């Protein structure tokens, strides 16, 4: 196999919390617990799926070099992210770009939105003259389906949420990174615009060879977009595999639970509401400290699950699961 684009090796991240005013005891949260997965060098979309608090954003921040892992390694094209950041920061961000949930975070409210694109062009030296820069901006906007004459010259608050988010896509298209780390990119945009946004991510992959780590709590959009799916439960990967396999034949009891709440386009079967992991409230309180993290909720729990943490194991060429049933 050729060198992966991105590889997480046994990555953990802990946070110390509490201790304030001496009222609460200090404790350690294992936000990310021995996570390993990789993305191939060919254009590819991996969906990282998990409920609220499962460690998704923490993983994104570590990949983006914004937070160091407590232990383990993150390699981008075979080289540690920490080293990229130390020695070739600009190059790294030319290749690895974020899309955040809230597109506002990247805009300065006092600058016209054009500035966001101009700054990207300058920073990554994408054009050698003003005219060339202007041409690139207009081309990129048109490719995303935005009308430059309508939007350029406006301030961020004069754009709708959907326009702001698509403006972010314009920025991505200008920079043409190798990898996008998209953390819940559509959760704040209107339902009617979500499909358009996802189709842009797909066309980035197909037309421009841009890979994407798509982070979401929503298995439904993941099944539309991704090549493979990684399921995160309380900071641990419980299952991983090609999209169709995971959706059609889930192995881990947690994945089965998630799949059972995906809408089924069959009128004879009950239409259960679209899966929204934020609504799986009851799961949150039951992270087991010993054994399998899911054991408190698992219908198949065995003696062993309470004492031994199952490791992520390959059970076929492409599939991995962390469960004592296998
Ligand atoms: N800076 C921090 N200090 C302390 N705890 C943190 C910090 N950042 C994250 N956590 C904790 O780590 C865990 C994982 O958080 P994270 O933000 O990665 O979850 P998430 O999967 O992105 O959730 P959501 O779907 O709600 O965005 C949570 O329990 C969170 O409270
Ligand atoms: Mg998050």
Secondary structure: elements and pairs:
Layout: E1 6-17, E2 27-39, E3 45-50, H1 56-63, E4 71-76, E5 79-80, H2 81-87, H3 89-95, E6 96-99, H4 114-123, H5 130-144, H6 148-151, H7 161-175, E7 179-183, H8 191-208, E8 211-216, H9 219-225, E9 228-233, E10 236-242, H10 243-248, H11 253-260, H12 303-307, E11 313-314, E12 320-321
Parallel strand pairs: 3-8, 3-9, 6-7, 7-8
Antiparallel strand pairs: 1-2, 1-4, 4-5, 9-10, 10-12, 11-12
Structure in words:
- The chain is of the alpha/beta class.
- The protein has a single domain (6-321), classed as Rossmann fold (3-Layer(aba) Sandwich).
- The protein is 34% helix and 22% strand.
- It has twelve helices and twelve strands.
- The strands form two sheets. The chain has an eight-stranded mixed β-sheet, with helices on both faces. Strands 2-1-4-5 form a four-stranded antiparallel β-sheet.
- Strand 11 and strand 12 form a beta hairpin.
- The longest helix is centred in the middle third of the chain and has 18 residues, at 191-208.
- The structure holds adenosine-5'-triphosphate and magnesium ion (MG).
- Adenosine-5'-triphosphate binds next to strand 1, strand 2 and helix 1.
- Magnesium ion is lined by residues 56-57, 183.
